[in-house]
């Protein structure tokens, strides 16, 4: 007994010491808080961000109550903790004291929420740590002066508000890297931040695009999207003289001009796309549904690796000179009026992985090198003399005359139909299973009346 008591006492001594140290530390922490040594604690959002978000919420729902349902913000809890409000992205501040709001991204569904055209509240400028702002498809009419948001690097506004409402910017942040102003009703381009790397001006009303290809104004611009411009003026594009000397140089690597009508006149032998030579760094070019009414350019930028020009009313032959662009990996020229054979010299395109010339008027025979190089080749509905056995997409399925002008992405349309079919089938299966299960439990719970009657009868006999 004495021995066991000694063991217990020896075990209690370390435990008492540990308890004593814990009390001392707790008391020191309490004194530090009382003396003001602990000024702030990690685990709360910066007060200025909280105030700004509440003001934004209050201003928006005051104009349109539908914003309350869309935002779904609980203004009585911390915006960042334990998890951020809807549409917010938070990060710990540099001093490790507070969380800051660094992202505010809305993706409005105007036909569902039916939000009214609204000016964005001035409190946006108080979110000084904001780096990303996206109001895609939201009916925002105007924004406050954004120049104070020095951390803002990405600003996207895909306007879906009525045509008579214009999107007006008084100032943009000086170090903005990505800017998207889609369908914003812009008629005249003013000077944009020179720091831009990505610019999307889809669906606007301006016609002169010359300033966008100025390396001096935008030395960092590498991605430019100017599709769906109804007033597009091709004569304002960079010009290249007959001896292929370059007038202006741009650092653009990706250019999207889909659905832009190239209406300028060119002399015989020239192409509407000769301007591409002025973009010596260009790697990807997309010009689907462009009304070019002419041949392909004889020469391309040396680094080109993706070229899209389906449904663009191209005529003439495939240029022999394109055999020099060995970086070319994707080439889509479907749904045009191209003629002649596929040049044998194109066998040098060792990086080519996808090549589509469906729905043209090409002749000859698809060359064997396409099969040897394992290129995904589409050559449907051409004037092939013979079709090799390896070419499974060189025939011509039954189509009406108008189908010749459909998009080259027929397989994509089939996939979309399959997706819609699955969306109908899967819920139907769940409904059937649900009905069977419910029916099973309902019938199981119903009492067996025959057994009950017989049981009562035997009780009466007894």
Explain what the structure shows:
24% of the residues lie in helices and 13% in strands. With 462 residues, it is an alpha/beta fold. Mean pLDDT is 80; it is low at 1-5, 19-41, 398-414 and 447-462.
Query: What general outline do the C-alpha atoms trace?
Result: globular
What is Rg?
34 Å
**N/C terminus separation:** 71 Å
Outline the low-pLDDT stretches: 1-5, 19-41, 398-414, 447-462
Q: What is the share of helical residues?
A: 10-25%
Structural class: alpha/beta
Number of strands: 16
Could you state the order of secondary-structure elements as H and E?
Answer: HHHEEHEEEEEEEEEEEEEHEHH
- Give the rounded overall mean pLDDT: 80
Bin the strand percentage.
Answer: 5-15%
What's the total helix number?
7
* Side-by-side strand order of the widest sheet: 1-2-3-4-5-6-7-8-9-10-12-14-16
Major sheet size, sense and barrel closure: 13 strands, mixed
Outline the secondary-structure elements.
Elements: H1 2-34, H2 47-63, H3 66-71, E1 88-92, E2 99-107, H4 110-113, E3 132-136, E4 154-158, E5 178-182, E6 198-200, E7 223-225, E8 254-256, E9 284-286, E10 306-308, E11 315-316, E12 330-332, E13 337-340, E14 354-356, E15 361-362, H5 369-372, E16 376-378, H6 410-445, H7 449-461
Parallel strand pairs: 2-3, 3-4, 4-5, 5-6, 6-7, 7-8, 8-9, 9-10, 10-12, 11-13, 12-14, 13-15, 14-16
Antiparallel strand pairs: 1-2
Brief sketch in words of this structure:
By secondary structure, this protein is an alpha/beta fold.
């Amino acid at each position: 007994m004495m021995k066991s008591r000694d063991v217990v006492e020896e075990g209690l001594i370390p435990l008492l010491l540990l308890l004593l140290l814990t009390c001392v530390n707790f008391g020191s922490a309490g004194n530090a808080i009382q003396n003001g040594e602990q000024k702030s604690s990690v685990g709360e959002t910066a007060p200025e961000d909280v105030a700004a978000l509440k003001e934004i919420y209050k201003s928006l729902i005051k104009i349109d109550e539908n914003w309350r349902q869309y935002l779904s913000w609980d203004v009585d809890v911390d915006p960042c903790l334990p998890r951020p409000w809807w549409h917010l992205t938070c990060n710990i501040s540099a001093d490790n004291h507070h969380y800051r709001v660094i992202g505010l991204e809305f993706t409005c569904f105007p036909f569902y929420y039916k939000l009214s055209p609204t000016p964005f509240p001035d409190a946006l400028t108080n979110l000084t740590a904001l780096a990303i702002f996206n109001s895609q498809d939201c009916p925002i009419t105007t924004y406050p002066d954004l120049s104070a948001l020095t951390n803002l690097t990405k600003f996207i506004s895909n306007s879906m508000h009525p045509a008579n409402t214009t999107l007006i910017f008084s100032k943009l942040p000086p170090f903005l890297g990505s800017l998207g102003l889609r369908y914003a009703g812009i008629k005249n381009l003013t000077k944009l931040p020179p720091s831009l790397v990505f610019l999307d001006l889809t669906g606007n009303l301006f016609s002169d695009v010359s300033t966008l290809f100025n390396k001096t104004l935008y030395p960092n611009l590498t991605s430019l999207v100017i599709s769906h411009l109804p007033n597009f003026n091709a004569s304002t594009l960079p010009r290249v003289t007959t001896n292929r000397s370059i007038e202006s140089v741009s650092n653009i690597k990706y250019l999207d001009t889909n659905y832009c009508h190239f209406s300028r006149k060119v002399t015989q032998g020239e192409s509407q796309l000769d301007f591409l030579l002025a973009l010596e760094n260009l790697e990807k070019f997309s010009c689907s549904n462009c009304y070019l009414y002419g041949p392909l350019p004889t020469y391309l930028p040396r680094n080109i690796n993706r070229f899209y020009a389906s449904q663009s009313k191209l005529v003439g032959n495939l240029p022999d000179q394109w055999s020099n662009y060995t970086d070319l990996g994707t080439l889509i020229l479907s749904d045009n009026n191209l003629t002649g054979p596929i040049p044998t010299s194109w066998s040098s395109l060792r990086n080519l992985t996808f090549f589509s010339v469906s729905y043209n008027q090409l002749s000859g025979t698809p060359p064997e090198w396409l099969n040897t190089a394992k290129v995904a080749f589409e050559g449907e509905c051409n004037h092939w003399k013979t079709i090799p056995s390896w070419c499974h997409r060189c025939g011509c399925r039954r189509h009406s005359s108008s189908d010749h002008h459909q998009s080259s992405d027929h397989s994509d349309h089939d996939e979309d139909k399959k997706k819609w079919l699955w969306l109908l089938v899967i819920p139907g299966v769940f409904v059937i299973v649900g009905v069977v299960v419910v029916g099973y439990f309902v019938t199981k719970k119903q009492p067996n009346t025959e057994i009950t009657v017989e049981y009562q009868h035997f009780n009466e006999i007894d």
